[in-house]
Design brief:
single chain; alpha/beta; 23 helices; 13 strands; 47% helix
Length: 634
């Protein structure tokens, strides 16, 4: 809502009080009617315009909210809170110039309003005015040096524009100022390290375990005692597996959960064995942690039991999982938005695993397993994680293409040698590290236009596109000698089908580093566009290799910068191969394990049964010594 960050202050008398009562009674239309009557008598009644704006915002009628708030500040120009609300509304509508002005006025009237500093700085960053944004954050920190939220907001803003290394420095300054065990900043540090090139797996693990210890120290609940009876600890009894996620909706993770979980639930209903005879009876329960619901949520709920945990605190989440009788609990978020890892300390199930949504170890002392594959986490890399690794005998993810994916179209560019080959990355700017820009620039230099060769262009996507953001993006490549005219920035689209259709204008996708794409790589290949990836030394930078090998394109996974440039350059000059890939890649992908939902359901069921058997036999998180067959623990 537009007033987030302020406690709304209104004169609670007369029509304002009556409207507020109707609003709290769940009758926003009644509240608006009272306010309209008041405004008909007194058009300059600023408080009535303000409350009207809040009501419109709560109903997601953002244009109407803005109109009311503009009128409010015209009637009462010294209302700092109204200016703040106006700034928030402008941010929602991506009108960053208006938002910047509104926040600036709020700060002028209320210099202590740190939320307004954050809003204004974000507008400045969106407008390409980075230096002013950083100065504003530093000014905020001077006012509140021990407020972890301010440090966190500053770091987040830097990550969003691809400056993760600077963000890490900010978080470390914050920890020094606020306290080395501040869990919010430690969480921010762990998340941000995923985007920074050159951070060793050992450093990543140490940071995550530091966070895990900090949360464990705060845990106030006693560890549950699970029955010791032979019946409960039967390795082959029917077990219940809970998938803990806030993404049972239109979200990238849903594209990798829906296919396998739906197949698993159908097999369980049909045969009673959870899709895999050697896994035995394995029932699934979907634990939905956020209050987000759409048609994708309905599809999930139609195939398996869904339990809403929205609004519950950590203890409530753990109690709900225990009440469901979950035997194996699989976290699908890690330390991303909506994370409920804190609910798993001390425990919410006998066996706890993490999967899919986070490219790193969790560091949580009660997380037993991490589900991966032998490409993302090859044998010998186990020490990078605090958990034991369960390596699936296939790619660790399984993609469900969008149900309304547009058909792949032949590329007219590839048939016309006078037109440049179109390179692109539709990953978010967060993943465009300086090292990534430098490597891609090498590709652009190696494929620059020359006599008889049209060269290449590069298209990027951004949440906000204007002259300033285009200029800033082009400047990053210009610093490496790339003509700004060869770099284009386009906005994200509202409709997913429109996003996929943009691949009609792409011939080769470049993967980000060190944090590879997952959804973007799958979408590109589904639309007939091959992806070139740079393979690194940790899961985050090996996902691209796993996906490519799954569809028989392992030769596009480069083990060094020089190889990446060579692979991309050779592909640019092989228009015949590009045309053939465009014509056949969707079918190849659809026939591969990457889209084999039934096979992936069986693999996950076997993994859960294996982890359960291990727990029953007394296996421990620290036992890494046992050799196990492919598709098992290590």
């Amino acid at each position: 809502m537009v007033h987030a960050g302020f406690v709304p202050s209104l004169p609670m008398n007369g029509p304002i009080e009556r409207a507020w009562e109707r609003l709290n009674a769940g009758d926003p239309d009644g509240a608006k009617a009272i306010l309209r009557q008041a405004l008909a008598k007194a058009p300059g009644f600023a408080a009535a315009h303000k409350l009207m704006g809040m009501i419109h915002s709560g109903l997601h009628d953002d244009e109407a909210a803005m109109e009311s708030l503009r009128t409010c500040v015209a009637c009462e120009p010294r209302d700092a809170e109204a200016w703040f609300m106006l700034g928030n509304g402008a941010m929602i509508l991506k009108r960053h110039e208006e938002g910047e002005r509104a926040y600036a006025r709020c700060i002028e009237l209320a210099p202590e309003a740190t939320s307004a500093y954050d809003g204004r700085a974000k507008c400045l960053l969106s407008l390409g005015r980075s230096a002013e944004a950083h100065a504003l954050y530093e000014r905020t920190l001077a006012l509140t040096p021990r407020d972890p939220d301010v440090w966190g907001r500053y770091a987040t803003a830097l990550v969003v524009i691809g400056r993760a290394r600077d963000a890490v420095a900010i978080v470390e300054r914050g920890l020094a100022s606020v306290g080395a065990d501040n869990v919010a900043l430690l969480e921010q540090l762990c998340y941000t390290l995923n985007f920074v090139e050159g951070v060793s797996p050992a450093v990543n693990r140490e940071a995550h375990e530091r966070l895990g210890r900090a949360w464990a120290a705060k845990a106030s609940r006693f560890a549950p005692e699970f029955p010791s009876s032979r019946g409960f600890r039967d390795p082959e009894r029917a077990i219940k597996v809970g998938f803990l996620s806030g993404d049972y909706c239109r979200h990238a993770c849903a594209w990798f959960l829906e296919g396998p979980l739906s197949a698993w639930a159908r097999a369980c209903a049909r045969t009673g064995v959870g899709g895999s005879a050697d896994a035995g009876e394995v029932e699934i329960v979907l634990l939905h942690t956020l209050d987000r619901r759409d048609e994708v949520t309905d599809r999930f709920a139609s195939v398996a039991t869904m339990v809403s945990l929205a609004g519950l605190d950590d203890a409530g989440v753990a109690e709900a999982a225990l009440a469901q009788g979950i035997d194996v609990l699989i976290d699908c978020a890690g330390w991303t938005e909506g994370s409920r890892l804190r609910a798993l300390v001390p425990r919410a199930a006998p066996v706890q695993a993490t999967y899919l949504g986070y490219p790193n170890t969790t560091g949580m002392p009660t997380m037993d397993w991490r589900i991966v594959d032998a490409v993302t986490d090859p044998p010998g890399s186990d020490d990078a994680c605090s958990e034991r690794l369960w390596r699936l005998d296939r790619c660790f993810v399984c993609f469900r293409p969008h149900e309304e994916s547009p058909a792949v179209e032949p590329s007219e560019r590839l048939a016309d040698a006078s037109r440049p080959v179109a390179l692109a990355s539709f990953n978010r700017a967060t993943k465009l590290s300086d090292e990534c820009v430098a490597l891609w620039s090498r590709v652009l230099r190696e494929t620059a236009p020359s006599a008889g060769f049209a060269g290449t262009t590069l298209t990027l996507k951004a949440s906000v596109v204007n002259e300033e953001s285009r200029r800033e993006a082009a400047a990053r490549f210009a610093a490496h000698g790339i003509d700004p005219a060869r770099v284009n920035v386009v906005p994200f689209t509202d409709r997913h089908t429109d996003h996929l259709a943009m691949y009609h204008g792409v011939d080769i996708a470049l993967d980000t580093l060190p944090y590879n794409g997952t959804t973007t790589t799958c979408e590109a290949m589904w639309m007939g566009v091959p992806v070139v990836t740079r393979v690194g030394d940790a899961h985050r930078s090996r996902v691209g290799k796993s996906l490519l090998e799954c569809v028989g394109l392992g030769d596009l996974a480069a083990g060094s910068d020089d190889e990446f440039v060579r692979v991309a350059r050779d592909l640019v000059h092989d228009r015949t191969r590009l045309a053939n890939l465009r014509a056949g890649l969707r079918r190849r992908m659809g026939d591969s394990a990457l889209c084999d939902h039934d096979g992936h359901a069986r693999a996950l069921a076997r993994a859960c049964r294996g982890m359960w058997r291990d727990w029953v036999s007394g296996g421990t998180r620290g036992d890494r010594a046992r050799a196990t067959p492919s598709g098992g623990a290590s």
